[in-house]
Amino acid sequence: MKDISLDAKMRELETLGADLHNRDFLLTWEHTPAELRSILLTAQCLRALHDSERSVRAFDTGLAVSIFRDQSTRTRFSFASAATALGLSVSDLDETKSQIAHGETVRETAVMIAFLAEAIGIRDDIYLGEGNRYMREVAAALQKGYEQGVLSRRPAVVNLQCDLDHPTQTLADLLHLESRFGGLDGLRGRRFVISWAYSPSYGKPLSVPQGLIGLLPRFGMDVTLAYPEGYDLLPEIVDLAGKQAAAAGGAFRISHDMAEAFDGAEIVYPKSWAPMQVARRRTELLRKADQAGLKALEKECLDENARHASWQCDEALMKRTAAGSALYMHCLPADISGVSCEKGEVSKDVFERYRLETYREAAWKPFVIAALIYLTRVQNAPAALRRMVDSGTPRIR
Amino acid sequence: MKDISLDAKMRELETLGADLHNRDFLLTWEHTPAELRSILLTAQCLRALHDSERSVRAFDTGLAVSIFRDQSTRTRFSFASAATALGLSVSDLDETKSQIAHGETVRETAVMIAFLAEAIGIRDDIYLGEGNRYMREVAAALQKGYEQGVLSRRPAVVNLQCDLDHPTQTLADLLHLESRFGGLDGLRGRRFVISWAYSPSYGKPLSVPQGLIGLLPRFGMDVTLAYPEGYDLLPEIVDLAGKQAAAAGGAFRISHDMAEAFDGAEIVYPKSWAPMQVARRRTELLRKADQAGLKALEKECLDENARHASWQCDEALMKRTAAGSALYMHCLPADISGVSCEKGEVSKDVFERYRLETYREAAWKPFVIAALIYLTRVQNAPAALRRMVDSGTPRIR
Amino acid sequence: MKDISLDAKMRELETLGADLHNRDFLLTWEHTPAELRSILLTAQCLRALHDSERSVRAFDTGLAVSIFRDQSTRTRFSFASAATALGLSVSDLDETKSQIAHGETVRETAVMIAFLAEAIGIRDDIYLGEGNRYMREVAAALQKGYEQGVLSRRPAVVNLQCDLDHPTQTLADLLHLESRFGGLDGLRGRRFVISWAYSPSYGKPLSVPQGLIGLLPRFGMDVTLAYPEGYDLLPEIVDLAGKQAAAAGGAFRISHDMAEAFDGAEIVYPKSWAPMQVARRRTELLRKADQAGLKALEKECLDENARHASWQCDEALMKRTAAGSALYMHCLPADISGVSCEKGEVSKDVFERYRLETYREAAWKPFVIAALIYLTRVQNAPAALRRMVDSGTPRIR
């Protein structure tokens, strides 16, 4: 039986004509809408095949390298799942996260791990001003190595979360939204709120809210960024969000009132983050290994957080959303009041109502990563994907 | 050339008609004799193929997840060997074993690691009352996730040792016995002794002796459980052993005299374990992280152990067994007197005589695990296995 | 299009008739020139295939075990890359390096990890007198296990660096030399200098210089070993180097003057190592866990090193080499003055000039390891390799 929906997606992918072959994927805003749509379509095709127990193996053999400069269970398993499904083996480069390696060491290590590698997935989200820069250092070393004939191929660098963006998360979020609102066209004009929320911890990365405002307005969504005054994101990304919204017919605005922001919202994404200024100070203190300074900063920030403890997504706030039933989203794990902490980002009843939805949101991430590896490494990806679909190789023999 | 023995096993497997597809494997006593026989036969078939350098790959791609909440070299390699042979890639979830995670965290993590997983192997044997419960929490979360459409398939949970049972070990033991006594029918009425033995450590899990008394009488064996008074196993499993023995025509009795138990025994399995009451107190102390209490408990228990230092399997005891030549078994590593400790579970000369036999016993474990993954994940496994045998794909090209 | 160079190498390999099947690879000097040439040719063939995006998968499934008793990024990735390219999955045995396991434990563990393994790669270079012995203990246990029917096959032990030799490094070095000097015949009579060089650390292994003098004179090279008096290598290997040089028409001499050694050299390999006597004392102290003794030894050795701080490969020294342009080599990472340390083995300008060359040198290592696994595990390897070349399976579908 022919899968009509899969076939339609294949044809759209062929029509788009986007080419990510031999490129990296570091920030969504470095890519055209056609490229982003190609990623979404490829993720959907790979998922449709996998869910129907067909093999999505693209590589007979090959290595996928992961570098996690921060602890991670979800992203680690998403990357391993994606690489494995494509036929790659994962090798993890275990760096001590305390050390911000640069220059010669990064350049040399990047080449040494890349001789037979297809893709290098990197998570480096702790140090503001460092994570994305590190990825570019790795990418530049690979490019040089390739141009000078040291590497026979150029592995792709895939951003698994940095200080600026978390593209595999936000593209998974976008796929979840697409599935909930009847396709990408169904997202135009939808009121989406990414709001700061209270957490009993401090220092969470800025990459998810920045990634969301940098991506969603480009698909015509009406995005509100809400946070208590002082909890600013990087100004260049806020600027970009506004410009991209204007260019794409989406909207972008900032609010400092969570309740007001929730009024009439169709999707809410309440999530804690550290103010940019705090992230900067923290990076400096970490660089100097100033333990006393870090302790003082933590206390100062938790006190400040406590002043905004009312920024919690509870039933009262949810009632203000469109028809009282906005879609709740989160990148997980959430700080759930009375479950994972005394008081957190979301009340227990709200989270429980949307728990399965957050799981469905997360389910897209392995396929986004697989799509990124596939599109950056496979030549003429739409044709190769068509061959994969036509072969219909079962995953289990 | 047709392998007659392999063909006979294939036909027996087809005749049994047992179906483990889409199920977990947590305790042997939750499975019918036909299911257990299917596992043994599948393990033998996979081993026959592998030993003759034919491929047993069943999956084109796929993920096998391992969760070890206790250190393990043997089981870790058995699981990796089994998964790899079937074509799966292993990803390890590294939990700090100090923390007994429950509830929301387990539920969420189970789903997050399972999106593309086929099997999740778990070892959790430290805390009496916890290990098997944890596995069931994981399994319940997967089942819910599957039923609610979050997971496109339901990965199997495989017990790699818990507080109650160690089924991959005891099924490997059973395969070893089968190979030594001319098939399963040759085991009926055989006198098997699982005996506590002295060790200079305390707190070893109860799962091996419990697993053995819960399994072997079901195959008609005459099983004696021997231990110094006070070193009790869980009463519900002891009860079960007696009932299962009666139902299957086997026998089960308890002795508090190692020498008397060895009289006329055909197989002996001397192994240390912690008394159930000690395991319970230890779990409480570990939960409270009561280091002083743990230290006091250890001293108390080692003193108690020392009172039973004569419970060592030496040549004098072995002379009392049937024809003075009972088969010695152990799950390894054994506490060998004069080798790995001053005084332990077995004398150096006895162990050395049976060293290779214990290796042969251990050799079955990877194939038991492979059989469990195969039967729980492959639809109509006997037919699929027949196709595998007929294809005769060489493992090395 | 037929690859003429690849075809020529295939034919030479077939002509050599060397057979490494079912053997280990522990020291280059235990192997005949024909065997070593077979390894070089196989590495070149595998690389030619891989670089042209053809698959070099030899195993449908299988396990490659790594044991690293010392930290390692490069060798770890080389081993993983090699195993993965051949179709094997890597499982790492994580031993605490503080413990020198021997006897029963090694014997048992070796068998337990080997039931389904094809190759076991071991790095154990910290303890002089221990590393190679440990590998032989593992190999002997595997051999016994195989002969006695415990193992259905005999996995190969591959030396990834020990206290005596570093064969995967030196064979990679030899391949690099071959590519730079127009084939192995182009190496005859070439003046090669392996020289001690200053480092602000002490205790680096002896295996690279020992491996180089034990290998290169056998290919007719004119090898000088230069070091300050007292920084001796193991006398039995120095003796062997002289004998092998004489037998093969190469040359071998010792100098205690770096500048004199560099005069007219065509290749220089300046690298720090610990004097044999220091390595012996260090092993004793590590065995006794004598922290104070280790600290005292370190201070004594760094003071001694400091007396030879002029042993640095800088532009002035390079000017003395043949045409002032000898090839600089290093196994990486190098101690680069002003980059990775204040003063080290090589000046910044010299290293920077040869940086890409050192990367090209390193690029051979994964293919050397792949060749070793291939030749020791695949029956009639030249014929199998011919089939692989003829099939031309693309690596990416």
Characterize the main sheet of chain A. 5 strands, parallel
Largest interface: A-B, 36 and 35 residues
Number of helices of chain A: 15
User: How would you spell out the order of helices and strands of chain A?
Assistant: HHEHEHEHEHEHEHEHEHHHEHHH
Span of the ends, CA to CA of chain A = 19 Å
* Poorly predicted regions of chain A: none
Helix content of chain A: 40-55%
What's the count of strands of chain A? 9
Q: What is the overall shape of chain A?
A: globular
The oligomerization state is homotrimer
Spatial strand arrangement across the major sheet of chain A: 7-6-5-8-9
Average predicted confidence as pLDDT of chain A = 94
Structure in a nutshell:
The structure is a homotrimer of 397-residue chains. Chain A is an alpha/beta fold and 397 residues long.
Can you describe what's shown?
- The structure is a homotrimer.
- Chain A is about 45% helix and about 10% strand.
- Chain A is built from 15 helices and nine strands.
- Chain A has helices spanning about 5-15, 35-50, 75-85, 105-110, 130-145, 165-180, 205-215, 235-250, 260, 275-285, 290-305, 315-320, 350-365, 365-375, 380-390; strands at about 65-70, 90-95, 115-125, 155-160, 190-195, 220-225, 250-255, 265-270, 325-330.
- In chain A, strand 1 (about 65-70), helix 3 (about 75-85) and strand 2 form a beta-alpha-beta unit.
- Chain A is globular.
- The model of chain A has no long low-confidence stretch (mean pLDDT about 95).
- Chains in contact: A-B, A-C, B-C.
- The interface between A and C is large, with 35 and 36 residues.
